[in-house]
Predict the structure.
Amino acid sequence: MFLPPILIKKLGCKWTIAGSMCCYIAFSLGNFYASWYTLIPTSVILGLGGAPLWSAKCTYLTIAGNSYAEKAGKNGKDIINQYFGVFFLIFQSSGIWGNLISSLIFSQSSNKVEISEESLACCGAHDCMTETTNTTASAGPSESLKYTLLGIYTASGVLAVLLIVIFLDQIKSDQAETEKEIQKTPSLWSTFLATFQHLKDKRQCLLIPLTMYSGFEQGFLAGDYTKTYVTCALGIHYVGYVMICFSAVNSLCSLLFGKISQFTGRKLLFALATVTNAACIIALLLWKPHPNQLVVFFIFPALWGISDAIWQTQTNGLYGVLFEKHKEAAFANYRLWESCGFVIAFGYSTTLQVYIKLYILLAVLVLSMVTYGVVEYMEAKSSTGTPTATKKENVGPHTQETNM
């Protein structure tokens, strides 16, 4: 909530990204000796680095997109959507390589156990809420394989930081804003409160359910689908391959939707994501997973990847377009509320049955689309208003909407 505006103002996007990525490396190092005393502190460090990293990334892409659009004479929001599409193509592909690495390494000592029909009865939406329903979950890899995997992940993190430090250009906003900052540097306290102050914008408040839903749906797929559907019915060694399917579809669709959004508009894409996600949720409520239906286990993450690609690219792009003059605070709010969605989803993960989680997911999805629709209505009403109002929006959309 507080760190992103402060670090981005003081360090710039490049060094905020590089420093925050080091927090991820610390978490990888903590896993070499996994205990309460290593994982809890490094998890805190990871959390401290996550918000500035993602906020700085979003700010960097938004500034770069607007700068290129101005030089090329193109629409800024179209370029921003394309930039986020390219980014999430690369980002989601990490799920392919990361899961492929872990699957190949862990498959070397896979202790596969036959899953009984009694255990299968506890898989799916009406799970039995017991840890003993799946004996394959207790068959862990050897210590040497764990260290091999962690070594690869840590080395990848170090390489990523070096690439940022050496090759990524420092970036600044337009010259007018830069000169203004030079003349009057905002106080640390005002920067500290920027994220809170941004909640005065009605549009930001209305986008909270949509932003939180992003955390809910990702948390469900990673935490519940992989456990109560894939691991329960197929075994833990299938989790990596199922998530590769999700990441591959998500990666390709991120690029696709980033490019076609200028032709379809974001409203149509949001509608597609809503229908796809709602259909998956209803189907998961009805489906009883069984090893004989292997293809179905991959269909759900593929469809989920399509909808998630839209949620990620279009929601990030929406924030960049609506809050162009308040990017740092806006994307700090984005990470805050998305993280809240993760926290809530993982918080009730061990206390509620899956079918209840699916109903919650569906309810949040419906609420998200209602509040998002209100934001689009406000934007349409503002753009068709008086010339004076239009002029004010172009100069400072945050100010006008706050006063509405």
